[in-house]
Write a structure and sequence with these properties.
By secondary structure, the chain is an alpha+beta fold. Helix content is about 30%, strand content about 25%. Among the domains are: about 100 residues, Beta Barrel (OB fold (Dihydrolipoamide Acetyltransferase, E2P)); about 180 residues, Bira Bifunctional Protein, Domain 2 (BirA Bifunctional Protein, domain 2, 2-Layer Sandwich). Strand 17 and strand 18 form a beta hairpin. Helix 4 crosses helix 14 and helix 12 packs antiparallel against helix 13. The structure holds one RNA strand of 75 nucleotides.
RNA sequence: UCCGCGGUAGCUCAAUGGUAGAGCAUUCGACUGUUAAUCGACAGGUUGCUGGUUCGAGUCCAGCCCGCGGAGCCA
């Protein structure tokens, strides 16, 4: 019978069975093949310790001088890091091993003996730019490997969260006719005899899906030609964008909170090993179990004023410095990076800030009936300096209002008319949000740079490798 | 675009204006229980570029190039 857990295998029992390193603990006493790459080598004149990794783990293969032929021993002695090998060995219990077992080599088959592998084994990340130039090799190293495993789990958790709730996966196009939000910079690409633009959000398309399916989720890459040079920005990143018909702001906040809680909890549960390798202090992550504070923009101004005063008087050099930048943008304006950092320090868990002034938000946001100077939007701010991981809200559903907004924001009517059709033919209250996958992974892993959370980061100065 | 920091061996960093240095990695050697092994040895350089001051510049000055961090904008 087909077993989805296992790759097709050699079933010829005259040769040893191949196992992944993570499975070895279940095969003590068997002679097995392990296929992989030499992570590191230690040894003496008469015994060699080969650290072999295969992507599922690392195991130590012990090679005594009398266990193999002299030729094989000498080859093993000279093997360079990242040499590709197939080791035939007996699996033995070993209390000193981190995975509980080690291999006693019977036969060493070298596929390629590598010399001068450029990346050395090191746990610090001294020169990220140098390593990113070698990203195609760096992904083999422990730390990037662990981060990308977490990313994989996060993406899987997101997909399952929405699938379980009956959302339809609804793919938005990458080539788009023009700006979705009108303000941010777009990548322009030639498209036969015309110009097209790479998408900076699938949201407007998501809204069409909400009217067709009720609940949809757009999940794909997004492109922003902003010349940002910070540890939170990429020019190409992945975004998950749910969009739901008949959902109003409180429901949107419930959905965002549930989703963040689900993804973080799942990563904590499934990525214990990886988070240990990353030396991640998970205490703040565990606080996602609590309710996320929901604070309006207006209330937050007061909180920030108090934090500014408290930090300035704290005597803590870092907090005093931060206090100088709090509310730097002034009342009525968007929050700055320092404000988000302060919010994180204060609440120590994700915080939802809702009802921003309409001027600082996009044209399609619905006005708050209680005070039309504000819109029914919500940002989720992650603590520990990561900042905004989610932005979203309730969409304007009134045709006349949207038509005014289109004129006010100087959006070419012919590029947006199809969107206005959604308000002509059965308009309903609806909304959703977008979550940046990389920022979410950045928070979970505690990464300094968002660049480390995607296999091949694209930034203003990097399109290689 | 603006502000700040930086560029010395493959990597991380030293070097009052006076012979260009160390640790790690590489290469070679020693060791039968190492976990980023340890110990010993060899090798490794147009000090980002151009010009200037000086008897003498990695160091001081001017210009340029490149990189990083932050702001703005955003997820």
């Amino acid at each position: 019978m087909f077993d989805p857990k296992h790759e097709p295998r050699n079933t010829n029992h005259e040769t040893p069975m191949h196992y992944e390193i993570r499975e070895l603990k279940d095969h003590v006493g068997e002679i097995v093949d392990v296929r992989g790459w030499l992570y590191n080598r230690r040894g003496s004149g008469k015994i060699l310790f080969l650290q072999v990794r295969d992507g599922t783990g690392t195991v130590q293969a012990v090679m005594g001088k009398n266990d193999v032929s002299e030729a094989e021993f000498n080859i093993g002695k000279g093997l360079g890091n990242e040499s590709s090998v197939i080791v035939t060995a007996e699996v033995k219990t070993e209390p000193r091993s981190p995975i509980g077992v080690e291999l006693h080599v019977k036969k060493l088959n070298v596929l390629q003996d590598v010399k001068d592998y450029p990346i050395q084994i090191s746990e610090d990340v001294p020169n990220i730019d140098w390593l990113l130039d070698r990203r195609h090799l760096w992904v083999r190293s422990k730390v990037p490997h662990a981060i990308l495993k977490v990313r994989s789990e996060v993406v899987q958790a997101i997909r399952e969260f929405y699938y379980q709730r009956g959302f339809v996966l609804y793919d938005a196009p990458i080539f788009t006719p023009a700006s979705c939000e009108g303000v941010s910079t777009l990548f322009e690409v030639p498209y036969f005899d015309e110009k097209a633009y790479l998408t900076q959000s699938g949201q407007l398309y998501g809204e069409t899906g909400a009217m067709a399916f009720g609940k949809v989720v757009v999940f794909g890459p997004t492109f922003r030609a902003e010349k940002s040079k910070t540890r939170r920005h990429l020019t190409e990143f992945w975004m998950v964008e749910p969009e739901v018909a008949f959902l109003e702001l409180d429901g949107i906040m419930d959905l965002a909170e549930d989703q963040v809680r689900y993804v973080v909890t799942r990563a904590l549960d499934k990525c214990k090993e990886e988070l240990k390798i990353l030396e991640r202090d998970t205490s703040i992550l565990e606080r996602v179990a609590e309710r996320f504070p929901r604070v309006s923009y207006g209330e937050m101004q007061g909180v920030l004023q108090k934090l500014k005063a408290d930090f300035a008087a704290s005597g803590d050099e870092k907090l005093v410095k931060l206090s100088g930048d709090i509310l730097k943008n002034g009342l009525g304006d968007d929050l700055g990076a320092a404000d988000e950092t302060a919010v994180g320090i204060h609440y120590k868990r994700p915080v939802m800030i809702h009802r921003y002034p309409s001027e600082v938000k996009a044209f399609y946001m619905k006005r708050d009936p209680a005070d039309p100077n504000f819109v029914l939007c919500v940002d989720v701010i992650a603590p520990e300096g990561v900042g905004e991981v989610i932005g979203g809200g309730q969409r304007a559903d009134d045709l006349k209002y949207l038509e005014e907004q289109v004129i006010k924001h100087k959006i070419p009517p012919e590029t947006i008319d199809w969107y206005l059709d959604l308000r002509r033919f059965g308009s309903v209250p609806h909304g959703g949000f977008g979550m940046g996958v990389e920022r979410c992974v950045q928070w979970i892993t505690g990464c300094e740079h968002v660049r480390e959370t995607i296999p091949f980061p694209r930034t203003i100065y990097r399109t290689k490798p």
